[in-house]
């Protein structure tokens, strides 16, 4: 069970958000996650609300739509890749979401100044530890263990806006497939994985470059192009398995720090182009640092929520977390490939309240971090918060004070909210904003 405590007393949501431990100057503030304690510091921004989602494992819940999509994807890889009748892909579905910054960033060649490292994007436990922002965080540790083909499935955590398609916790499948020369070129033994200037036994004396858009400098063009062809064929087969053989698709060139070349796959679905995954050829530095110096690999990652919402016409991402039988029963005991269209149990009305405040002198409309405010709103309002939108920015022409206005949309998924109870929650959000950010409510 996840717990948050200061040795002998609990910490409030706002104290945890601000890392304000002044009430206990001689105590060491710690967070206990899955029976392990972590010392907090100035980077700590994970909140009790976010920690309450740990260990829910929606991707493993039998009647959850995320589990249906997960099983369909796993089955595709089991059936598509076999050796002597056995699946060649191994599956890891219970990896701990608590990772180090080395796992989440350094092992994946993500630069120190990359925006994905910032406190506004990630949920940090402390400077060296965070809730994983992507399943790729486990890639190097699995490669080091000697694995060559594997799927990593689990929940990931990112600070984000609040609306019907964004939630701070979602679920990903990441995969790696690596091949040696004799596997990739079994019909062309004279071809090579690496350029003559690159020695796979001494990879660190070679500076790998990604200046060529077609390949990494260590790889031959033949190896890269054959891996690209395999990768794209396999992923087109996957989306056809999910969305039908006639689904239109297109490839878009992309950039990821851990692959080169890289692409995104989009499908034409419901009269719109929908991005479904990112992929590419794994940077050789990652493979060399993890141990396998004689292979080339591809990798991809996709979000289960995006696929499930499109397949089953689910309008609100919060429904994935619902325990309501009216939602779950629609996916109960269904065949994996059955066509399911979600039918709303009932439609409850929205309540919309605005909040406007003057920022303190040390903040401006450009330096205030909206994700901090979103986390506060979510912590106070919980799952009745449907959306938070920045409505207006204002600088007073005379006083030069900066003001922000947000619209908060409240809606309960299982009953009608009364305006009076919404107003009470809204007042608590105002109080919390004053305390957390030193703002003045307008």
From TrEMBL:
Keywords: Aminoacyl-tRNA synthetase, ATP-binding, Ligase, Mitochondrion, Nucleotide-binding, Protein biosynthesis, Transit peptide. Residues 346-442 form the FDX-ACB domain. It catalyses: tRNA(Phe) + L-phenylalanine + ATP = L-phenylalanyl-tRNA(Phe) + AMP + diphosphate + H(+). Residues 69-344 form the Aminoacyl-transfer RNA synthetases class-II family profile domain. GO terms for biological process: phenylalanyl-tRNA aminoacylation. It comes from the Eukaryota. GO terms for cellular component: mitochondrial matrix. Its EC number is 6.1.1.20. CDD domains: PheRS_alpha_core. It is an enzyme of class 6 (ligase). It is found in: Mitochondrion matrix. Coiled coil: none annotated. One of its GO terms (molecular function) is ATP binding. Pfam families: FDX-ACB, tRNA-synt_2d. Is responsible for the charging of tRNA(Phe) with phenylalanine in mitochondrial translation. Belongs to the class-II aminoacyl-tRNA synthetase family. PANTHER family: PHENYLALANINE--TRNA LIGASE, MITOCHONDRIAL, PHENYLALANYL-TRNA SYNTHETASE. This is phenylalanine--tRNA ligase. It comes from Parnassius mnemosyne.
């Amino acid at each position: 069970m996840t717990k948050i405590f200061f040795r002998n007393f609990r910490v409030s949501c706002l104290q945890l958000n601000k890392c304000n431990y002044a009430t206990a100057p001689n105590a060491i503030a710690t967070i206990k996650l899955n029976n392990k304690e972590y010392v907090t510091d100035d980077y700590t921004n994970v909140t009790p609300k976010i920690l309450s989602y740990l260990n829910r494992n929606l991707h493993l819940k039998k009647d959850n739509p995320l589990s249906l999509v997960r099983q369909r994807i796993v089955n595709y890889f089991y059936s598509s890749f076999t050796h002597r009748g056995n699946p060649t892909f191994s599956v890891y579905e219970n990896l701990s979401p608590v990772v180090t910054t080395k796992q989440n960033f350094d092992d994946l060649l993500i630069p120190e100044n990359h925006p994905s490292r910032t406190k506004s994007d990630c949920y940090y436990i402390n400077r060296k530890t965070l809730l994983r922002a992507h399943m790729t965080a486990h890639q190097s540790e699995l490669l080091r263990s000697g694995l060559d083909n594997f799927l990593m499935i689990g929940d990931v955590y990112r600070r984000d806006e609040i609306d019907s398609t964004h939630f701070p916790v979602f679920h990903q499948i990441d995969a790696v497939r690596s091949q040696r020369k004799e596997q990739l070129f079994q019909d062309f033994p004279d071809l090579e994985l690496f350029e003559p200037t690159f020695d796979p036994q001494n990879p660190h004396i070679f500076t790998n470059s990604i200046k060529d858009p077609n390949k990494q400098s260590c790889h031959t063009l033949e190896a890269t192009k054959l891996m690209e062809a395999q990768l794209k064929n396999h992923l087109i087969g996957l989306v056809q398995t999910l969305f039908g053989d006639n689904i239109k698709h297109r490839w878009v060139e992309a950039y990821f720090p851990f692959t080169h070349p890289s692409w995104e796959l989009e499908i034409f679905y419901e009269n719109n182009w929908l991005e479904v995954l990112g992929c590419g050829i794994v940077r050789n530095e990652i493979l060399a640092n993890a141990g396998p110096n004689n292979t080339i690999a591809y990798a991809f990652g996709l979000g289960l929520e995006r696929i499930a919402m499109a397949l089953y016409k689910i309008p609100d991402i919060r429904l994935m977390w619902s325990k309501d039988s009216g939602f779950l029963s629609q996916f109960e005991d269904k065949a994996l490939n059955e066509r399911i269209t979600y039918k709303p149990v009932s439609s409850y009305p929205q309540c919309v309240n605005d909040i406007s405040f003057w920022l303190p002198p040390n903040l401006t409309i450009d330096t205030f971090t909206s994700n901090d405010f979103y986390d506060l709103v979510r912590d106070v309002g919980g799952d009745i918060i449907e959306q938070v939108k920045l409505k207006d920015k204002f600088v007073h022409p005379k006083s030069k004070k900066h003001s922000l206005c947000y619209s908060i949309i409240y809606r309960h998924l299982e009953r009608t909210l009364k305006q009076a109870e919404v107003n009470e929650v809204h007042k608590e959000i105002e109080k919390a904003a004053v305390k957390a950010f030193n703002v003045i409510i307008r």
